Amino acid sequence: MALEHHLGLTCDPICGLVQIPCIERNAFAAARALDSNTFSAFSDGFHRVTFDQVVEVMKQTGHDLPSLYKETSEGGLATNYCIIP
Q1: Range of the domain at 43
Q2: Does residue 27 fall inside a structural domain?
Q3: Which of 12, 29, 35, 38 could form a disulfide with 78 if both were Cys (CB 3.0 to 4.6 A apart)?
């Protein structure tokens, strides 16, 4: 469940720095991991989408995602916003 909601997220660091959005996203991901742990502790173990299916789709999504959204600072927020010191 924790990984399903991360499919297709871009990594487009502003000004080449990984603070926005990557580090901020990691903080939310840590909270989501704790919530998923609690959910799994109280579930019966049945999941409509298996972990292996999610990993396979995540791999395919990574291959399909254009490289300009893969931590290159060539697309997304990185090209539309820059912090001026």
Answers
A1: 18-79
A2: yes
A3: 12
